[in-house]
Amino acid sequence: MSRKRRRTPRSDWQFPLLTDWGLRPEQQRLLVIIATVVGVLASGAGLVAIAGSIGDYSPERQAGAVPESDIALPQVFRGWGSPKLFDPLADRAKDGRALTEKEVFAQSELAVTKKLKLKLVAKQLDTDCAAALWGENLIERVSEAGCTQVARGLYASSDGRYIGQYTLLNLKDGQSAAELVESLKTLYRGGWARPLTSSKGAFPAGGHSEAGGYALGHYVGLVWLGRIDGTEPGPKDDFVSLTLALRGAEKAVYRRVVSITGPSS
Questions:
Q1: N or C: which end of the chain has fewer CB within 10 A?
Q2: Domain range holding 213?
Q3: 51 and 163: one domain?
């Protein structure tokens, strides 16, 4: 008499679809465990991403970096190192005279073209560099760079379309100036020069503006330009010529090179 074959009990780890794929119960169990672990990890990654997006902040928008008022700041920044011409000013010890407003802003008008001019509408010289700047990182970096003076001049164009500010920082040496300009390439949205104010024009908060940083020996020059209406520049807006005109304030630094090296330089 043939013995009746006992039926193998169904495993808890058998799933019709997986069985159809030819996977044994132990294989199905392993697959389910792996899928569960991957799911948990994916969920964790998702939670981390969500939490990160909620509490995330970049160097441009650090907590406490932006002042209470919605201050204007550039949307574009480019930085340049110090030309060899300014090597004689690499050390402030060789250029000990303090800057003066008259020296930096000797010209009340800067020519852009024959018809267009930038007119000086406000100026200020601070020995407390932090008073002319905002942003914790920037203020800290400038302090470490031995900043002793910040000169700011605000200019409005004669046609009423443009606003510009030139800021000159007096640092301890050329290396500090170069490092500050380099750092501003990524951190400028977390710290910048405070704009001067005038009834003749101002940088509109949230408006488009562009800036450049220039190491000039132990000085750093910051050029900041925008349209008074805050819109982005169009084909007829020659920001290159406006920038060159605004850099006319740098003549004071060129004069200091000549005072050290002589006219033949």
A1: N
A2: 66-261
A3: no
